[in-house]
Amino acid sequence: MDIAVVDDEKVIREYIREMIENEKPDCDVVCFSSGEEFLAATKPFDIIFLDIQMDGMNGIEAAKEAREKSADTVLIFITGIKEYVFEALDLYAFHYLLKPVTEQKFTEVFGQALKEAGLRKIRQKKQLFINTRNKGITIDADNILYIESISRKVEIHTTQEIIEAYAALGELETQLGGTFYRCHRGYLVNMAHITEYKSDCITLTGGETVYLTKKKYGEFVNAYMWYLQNGGASCV
């Protein structure tokens, strides 16, 4: 999860960063001392903590420009004046934190923000473009049950048909990400279509079964639980 902290007070920036890292050590946190510095960054962020009152460009102005770049970012305003909250909510802010920010309130809001950011990632509609023997086609990722690697080709099993294409499974895994899990060297499965799983196999919508490498069982369960906890729908 990529997180930005934007505040012109160093003490506040470091305080927010410390609480983020305590709650979620695997997050990548980047701090900015101004709205201008933040907007100059090309990296997209999943969650933004943004101070409203700053020298130069204020947080409201910075948020308006940030929204144009990414509508799915989870935006949390930090302010010492309650009156600003209503203007902030007009920018579809997810939440706000009033200064001084307490650890208890931060933990509550940050936990909700993590779930929302995960849900927004899952909701982003993905499409896969592949070349078949005769033409190039686009497939909605939501319709893919699983992909099987066979020699130098792959078979893409969708809810309607099986499509053969020349592609590497690893490349497709990188493109799809998100709800897809590499359960076996020869299979990439869409977790949105899982109906049942055991230590050595996964059953999908329609009753088809794919192999699950036993040594990856624990990793798979963790990945599937993360998917469910962050807004993914269960078929189990």
Notes on the structure:
There is one protein chain. This protein is α/β, with parallel strands linked by helices. The chain has 2 domains: 2-123, Response regulator (Rossmann fold); 127-229, Beta Barrel (OB fold (Dihydrolipoamide Acetyltransferase, E2P)). The protein has helices at residues 10-23, 35-40, 59-69, 84-89, 103-123, 169-176, 217-229, and strands at residues 2-6, 28-32, 47-51, 74-79, 95-98, 127-131, 136-140, 144-150, 153-158, 162-166, 180-184, 187-190, 194-197, 201-204, 209-211. α1 (10-23) links the parallel β1 and β2 (28-32). α1 (10-23) packs across α5 (103-123). The two termini are 27 Å apart.
Features:
236 residues, alpha/beta, Rossmann fold, OB fold (Dihydrolipoamide Acetyltransferase, E2P), five-stranded antiparallel β-sheet, 31% strand
